[in-house]
Amino acid sequence: MRTIFVLVFWMAFVANAPAQMTAAQWKEDLNELTLLLEQHHPNPYSRISKTQFDSQRRALERDIPKLSDHEIIVRMMKLISGIRDGHTTLHPVDPNGFNHWFPVSFYKFSDGLYVVAADKRYQELIGGKVLKIGNASAEAAFDKTADLLSADNDFGREWNTFFLSSGDALAALRVIERAEVLPLEVAGIDGQPGKTTIAAVNLPYSLEHRFWGEMFPPGTSKMMDSYVAGFEKSSLGEWRKRDLKQQAHLPLHLRSRRAYWYAFLPEHKAIYLHMTHVTADGRGEFHSFHEFYDHVFKVAEENAVEKFILDIRYNSGGDGSVLIPFLHKFIRSSRFEQPGRLFTITGRKTYSAGVMLYDLMLKHTNTILVGDPAGAPRSSYGDAGTFYLKHSRLQIDISLVHWQLTNSADKSRYQPVDIPAVFSARDYFSGADPAVDYILSLPGRYKSLPEILLEEGGAAVKREYTDRLARYGKYDWWKVFDESAMRFAARDLMKAGKRADGQAGFEILLEQYPQSWRAWRDYGNALLAAGENGEALRCFKKGLEINPGYDEFRARIQALEKGK
User: Is the pLDDT of residue 347 over 90?
Assistant: First the structure.
């Protein structure tokens, strides 16, 4: 019996041992990787030129003989991530995968990289700011590992702290000397720096781990019972078993990471709906997602809810086909068609079908975007197919479909938000939530600047514009206001004889959108109607500089100059 056990153990060891790869085999796999990408991706060179990609591929091919297997893998991962498509990623799976994992999780807040969760043996590190990882600064270590996972934009890249927990990745990148030991320098909650080392756990790479969230371990679910997060002293295994009532002491965004759940907040006359995965399946007492949201809207109607908060900041996707009926609930609701009462919170993890959801909300409702921009633009690639390289058996996911959710001219890498709400480490660990807290603090409905102009006049909109610039002006991804909405509001006020109010709107409009020829046209026409010919002429000339092919500008300019 003992002999059989040893034989079985030896066979299992051999089956799981890394394949012995030659340089020629790695080169074959590299060529196959390129061929698969070009055969199946709709346009792999839309965000990187083929010349750049080929140059990096040739450099890797030349270096293969002098690199270790794991060094080759991280170079291949970086090559693929360079096309900037979050659905197209190379995974370090067995038999050549990454199997050394440190039981500690990191998150990049606005004020730096922090330890957010860890095994109980290292829980004193939680809440500490990371200063050094191995021989690199926290920022340098993040930059090296972030590019191993693909991301559609810089916001999605900020989510990529996953491989900071990988001993194999850090060793291959020469951030640490050995894959088994992680030297860390962390400034504790008292601000004092301290050094420690963390031992690796031997676990296979799993594709789903990178989607679990900042508080989860990098390894399998077996680690849950010994893993602790910054918001809860009990283990994550115990936390997951609790129902929502038992988690009521936590901030809303941390109460659960199940696919969907909601809370009715009677003191705020608000509904908070948290959705981390798009699925038709039932959860808890609900047999289906459809039954769930029917119930939520019934509660909203019965309790005269005034604010609806849809939180999809941790939504990494799922089945987009279930979204249309959900959207119809908002469209049919007279309660939430009113501007300033419906809010959608997005963030760096909002991705794939999560992006489809907020795109639908923007197109068909009066929702207000709060938080950080999503981790992918509204037009991107997806519906990935899975392939395996011949010799290494590494897994490559490749997008098969281009989702063009906006117009074909839209090349933007992110969707601006109306209300920035950025997490600092202090917010997170203290239980504050800049997004939800702000929404619930609003005394009434939220008003856009064009709405303030129409309802309260020019002086009021200038005051609020100045205030919002002071609060949010540092974010280049903040949407100050919609160009068309402000233009129509200012134009209508001028037509109604409210010249001072309309002029205030046009001044703000042209400060934010100086290249809008439509704004110069409408302002010029309004001034012309008011008898301000000189100022109107200036507007038409400016508009003609921006759009030389617009004949109305030439006609207006000729008529005004002829009449002088």
Answer: yes
Tokens of 502: 């309309």
Residue where a domain terminates, one of 63, 91, 119? 91
Cα(509)–Cα(21) distance, integer angstroms: 62
Give the mean model confidence (pLDDT) for residues 291-301: 96
Sorting pLDDT into bands at 50, 70 and 90, what band is 3? Answer: very low
Identify the CATH number of the domain in which residue 489 sits.
1.25.40.10
Which of 288, 255, 291 has the alpha carbon at shortest distance from 274?
A: 255
pLDDT tens-digit series, residues 512-551? 999 999 999 999 999 999 899 999 999 999 999 999 999 9
Same domain, 149 and 40: no
Residue 450 has pLDDT above 90, yes or no: yes
What does the pLDDT read at residue 407?
Answer: 83
DSSP for 17-81 reads: SPP---HHHHHHHHHHHHHHHHHHSS-TTSSS-HHHHHHHHHHHHHHGGGS-HHHHHHHHHHHHH
Q: How far apart are CA 263 and CA 309, in angstroms?
A: 10
> Are residues 341 and 271 part of one domain?
yes
Q: Assess whether 361 and 456 both reside in one domain.
A: no
pLDDT of residue 260: 95
Does a structural domain hold residue 407?
A: no
- Cis peptide bond upstream of 95, omega within 30: yes
β-pair partners for 404: 379
Same domain? For 181 and 220 the reply is: yes
Question: DSSP letters along 499-555, please?
Answer: HHHHHHHHHHHHHH-TT-HHHHHHHHHHHHHTT-HHHHHHHHHHHHHH-TT-HHHHH
Q: For position 564, what pLDDT does the model report?
A: 62
In a domain, 392, yes or no: no
Pick the range with the lowest mean pLDDT from 284-288, 342-346, 419-423.
284-288
- Distance, in Å, from the CA atom of 469 to the CA atom of 510, rounded to the nearest integer, reads 15
pLDDT value of residue 474 = 96
| Residues 200 and 277 occupy one common structural domain | no
Q: What is the CATH classification number for the domain harbouring 172?
A: 2.30.42.10
Question: By three-state DSSP, how is residue 170 classified?
Answer: helix
Amino acid at 24: A
The rounded radius of gyration (Å) of the Cα atoms in the chain is 27
- pLDDT of 237 reads 86
The tally of domains found in the chain comes to 4
* Judgement on whether residues 420 and 471 belong to the same structural domain of the protein: no
Angle, in degrees to the nearest 10, between helices 517-529 and 499-512: 160
d(Cα 51, Cα 42) in Å, to the nearest integer? 18
- The pLDDT mean for the chain works out to 92
CA quadruple 69, 75, 76, 80: dihedral, nearest 10: 160
Domain with 465 in it: 449-562
